[in-house]
Amino acid sequence: MATTIQISEKLKEKLNSRKLYDSESYEDVLWDILEDSMELSEETKREIAQAQKELSEGKGKALRQVRKELGL
Questions:
Q1: Angle of helix 9-18 versus helix 26-37 axis, rounded to 10
Q2: Contact status, residue 69 vs residue 55, Cβ threshold 8 Å
Q3: Spans of all domains in the chain
């Protein structure tokens, strides 16, 4: 069930500035903000640890190298 909330013009401007694209809903913006503050899942923590291990083993690539390979 949807509901309506009142927000100030200042908050509306802040939410607008957080939109990734013009048609993104305020609900999506708020979920993104909430997600940023939520604790990471155990699976995500494992994936981060694995990525850090791979980087320390030299398995990663620098951004400039990837850009060069992509011709950017």
A1: 80
A2: no
A3: 9-70
